[in-house]
């Protein structure tokens, strides 16, 4: 048994080393980045006279930074405050540089970055690979170096680079590569968030080996919306494509299933639990898009759930995957550091009440996750110790339905005393 465990550990270590060698070499995003991004909740509000609290303006980002510090978001790990589309003036300045809309960002981005940094947070900004952004503001085409230098001179820490109006597939790929090199040339550490494979996919299979050499995370699929059908479509897409996308994820480069919409209007409680659990299993970047100034205590509890965040941020950096699907139930697992596993049971049935899904522990980790024994801890929807199980036993997990779907998340640790020898002998 100990021999089998050692082999498993070496295999994992080898995979991790390989992934690290291939990732964008900027030392960033060793675990999935966490923060807040304005798009899903605030879209392209530009009329600050009519809607001062919700327009895309420096006030919005200052208030969000303040609440992130005051309400424990920063301490929970959410460190980036990110601007999406619509921050710009309609034209570049007289020297060809991008500039913020002077009415909505009267102090300028440099001052906003200083403020965000003074709160112990980091600032993210947005641009586009083509001539125009998705909302029609100036894009970075033909200005990659200048825009990277501008962002670096402002003290920006993350760039979300969209792919609207990108012209040909060749220009799309070249633009993503050139902006990555331009960011590197500035000498400033800037996380590079791409949508390259999403814009490529309808026409061409993405080369993820290449994309990971240039990007810290990348979107594969449509924008998330504040609805269960959107979350469900992202999960279904991910399961369908897991053979090509799961293996490439690792420290420095992650698949990005888009923002967390927990705390808004569209998800039931069980659906919100499901998004949080599954984003942890998928090693997803955690960018909330909600109004942290007005959020329910329940949503806050879920988004700040330490054990779930610890799974998302697990240092082994392996993305989880679906291991089996049985009618409406899906069983997912994610290998964690220390030979542990995170497990999620997803109930996609949208009729009736809660149901239990029972499965043998040998389903997990190719039979090795709980071999010869493991301690099981439930994380969501509430945390509870389940005690020690031997590898021949089964688990029965209750997953809620009620016109929704939901997830029970478990954390399986090796029965530590029993396997002490093989864990510590490195
Ligand atoms: C730029 O890339 C080189 C190697 O490709 C790397 O060593 C360096 O840390 C990078 N610099 C930044 C600022 O990302
Ligand atoms: C941007 O516009 C210029 C001038 O019209 C054009 O030559 C170029 O191909 C455009 N770029 C993209 C990516 O569409
Ligand atoms: C994918 O990109 C990598 C790195 O640039 C390259 O070595 C490899 O040949 C490419 N694969 C395909 C199928 O084009
Ligand atoms: C259903 O699962 C829960 C744990 O989630 C467990 O406590 C309960 O005993 C199970 N019920 C049945 C009937 O197996
Ligand atoms: C877990 O480890 C303890 C201590 O070695 C042992 O007494 C117990 O039997 C183990 N449990 C199982 C189910 O193997």
UniProtKB/TrEMBL annotation:
GO terms for cellular component: extracellular region; Golgi apparatus; lysosome; membrane. Transmembrane segments: none annotated. Pfam families: Melibiase_2 (PF16499), Melibiase_2_C (PF17450). Its EC number is 3.2.1.-. It catalyses: Hydrolysis of terminal, non-reducing alpha-D-galactose residues in alpha-D-galactosides, including galactose oligosaccharides, galactomannans and galactolipids; a globoside Gb3Cer + H2O = a beta-D-galactosyl-(1->4)-beta-D-glucosyl-(1<->1)-ceramide + D-galactose; a globoside Gb3Cer (d18:1(4E)) + H2O = a beta-D-Gal-(1->4)-beta-D-Glc-(1<->1)-Cer(d18:1(4E)) + D-galactose. Gene3D superfamilies: Aldolase class I, Golgi alpha-mannosidase II. Residues 317-398 form the Alpha galactosidase A C-terminal domain. Residues 1-23 form the signal peptide. It is found in: Lysosome. Its main location: other. One of its GO terms (biological process) is glycoside catabolic process. Keywords: Disulfide bond, Glycoprotein, Glycosidase, Hydrolase, Lipid metabolism, Lysosome, Signal. One of its GO terms (molecular function) is protein homodimerization activity. Catalyzes the hydrolysis of glycosphingolipids and participates in their degradation in the lysosome. Belongs to the glycosyl hydrolase 27 family. Homodimer. This is Alpha-galactosidase. It comes from Aquila chrysaetos chrysaetos.
């Amino acid at each position: 048994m100990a021999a089998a465990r050692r082999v498993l550990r070496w295999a994992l270590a080898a995979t991790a080393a390989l992934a690290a060698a291939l990732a964008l070499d900027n030392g960033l995003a060793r675990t999935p980045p966490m923060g807040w991004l304005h798009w899903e909740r605030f879209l392209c509000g530009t009329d600050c006279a009519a809607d001062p609290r919700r327009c895309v303006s420096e006030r919005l980002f200052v208030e969000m930074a303040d609440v992130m510090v005051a309400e424990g978001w920063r301490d929970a790990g959410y460190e980036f405050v990110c601007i999406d589309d619509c921050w710009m003036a309609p034209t570049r300045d007289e020297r060809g540089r991008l500039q913020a809309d002077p009415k909505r960002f009267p102090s300028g981005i440099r001052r906003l970055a200083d403020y965000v940094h003074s709160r112990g947070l980091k600032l993210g900004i947005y641009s586009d690979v083509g001539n125009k952004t998705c909302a029609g503001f100036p894009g970075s085409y033909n200005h990659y170096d200048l825009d990277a230098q501008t962002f670096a001179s402002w003290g920006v820490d993350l760039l979300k680079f969209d792919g609207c109006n990108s012209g040909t597939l060749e220009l799309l790929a070249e633009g993503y590569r050139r902006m990555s090199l331009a960011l590197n040339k500035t000498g400033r550490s800037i996380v590079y968030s791409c949508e390259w494979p999403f814009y490529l996919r309808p026409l061409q299979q993405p080369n993820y080996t290449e994309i990971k050499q240039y990007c810290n995370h990348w979107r594969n699929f449509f924008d998330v919306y504040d609805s269960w059908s959107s979350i469900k479509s992202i999960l279904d897409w991910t399961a369908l494509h897991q053979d090509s996308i799961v293996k490439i994820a690792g420290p420095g480069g992650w698949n990005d299933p888009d923002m967390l919409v927990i705390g808004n209007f569209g998800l039931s409680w069980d659906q919100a639990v499901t998004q949080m659990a599954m984003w942890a299993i998928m090693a997803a970047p955690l960018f909330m898009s909600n109004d942290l100034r007005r959020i329910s205590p329940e949503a806050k509890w879920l988004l700040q759930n330490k054990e779930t965040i610890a799974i998302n941020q697990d240092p082994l950096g392996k993305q989880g995957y679906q291991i089996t699907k049985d009618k409406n139930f899906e069983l997912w697992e994610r290998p964690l550091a220390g030979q542990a596993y995170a497990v999620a049971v997803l109930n996609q049935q949208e009729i009736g009440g809660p149901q239990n899904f029972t499965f043998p522990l040998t389903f997990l980790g190719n039979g090795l996750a709980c071999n010869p024994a493991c301690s099981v801890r439930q994380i969501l929807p509430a945390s509870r110790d389940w005690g020690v199980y031997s590898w021949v036993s089964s688990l029965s997990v209750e997953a809620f339905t009620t016109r929704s779907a939901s997830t029970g998340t478990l954390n399986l640790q090796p029965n530590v005393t029993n396997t002490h020898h093989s864990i510590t002998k490195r």
